[in-house]
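User: quick one, fold this
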Amino acid sequence: MANNLRRPVGFARLVGRAAPNLARAFLAPRTPKVESTGPVPRTRFNGTISPHRVVEGRLFSLQEIRDIRKRVPGATVNDVVLAVCGGAMRRYLDHHGELPEESLVAMAPISVRREDERRAAGNRISAMSVTLHSNVADPLERLARVHEGTRSAKEMAEAIGAETMTDVTQFVPGSLAALAARLYTRLGLANRISPFLNTVITNVPGPQIPLFFCGARMVSTFGLGPVLDGMGLIHPVFSYAGRISISVTSCREMMPDPGFYADCLEASFADLREAAARA
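Assistant:
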């Protein structure tokens, strides 16, 4: 009870701390060539999910991804992963005759841990919206545009203060959030309102040395992720011992052919690697 009485005071302090950052973020001049995320198109992954899941994944060379990113000044490993996923979704939806003219949009979690919190337990995560430029056929051009988008999103997060965005969630009552989620599902709002995103792509850097358990070497690792109404596709990405795994979790009704989607991931990576080699 005492803690609840203090919460309005804490919220007021948060608003006071966030207001100057918000003003600077929205009044600051924008770089003309940096695109912002536009309207999110509706795809098969933005409806109501079923209870059934599919899981797939593929492994890629971390060194090859690092070589590819050098072809776009300033690009990161994460930018390459986003471009690969965008290319895979483009190929998959185009195969089914469902590729929208507008670019697909992904939500990418970002760490907001301060330097003095590097060894602290737990996660401090915010998120940024990234345009995948799935409407761009050239893979290297898609990578360049993805990099511009992630740079813009990071600049906005730094201007507002990503830590401030995570602090806001502490003042949303858990019971209210749960009630809103149940209402969202019961009313089928995922099929009625415009989607907020098309997929989640979460990249977790892992150890680059082999791990062992009772003398057995861990060969590789693939991630699993939750899907929700309105967001039926997630890409857990994990790096380990010189390789990166791009996994996918989806609803079986939305993705009845997960093996084909995994092939799309491989084909998207191959196209980007070949384009980088020619550059």
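User: anything notable?
Assistant: The chain is about 40% helix and 20% strand.
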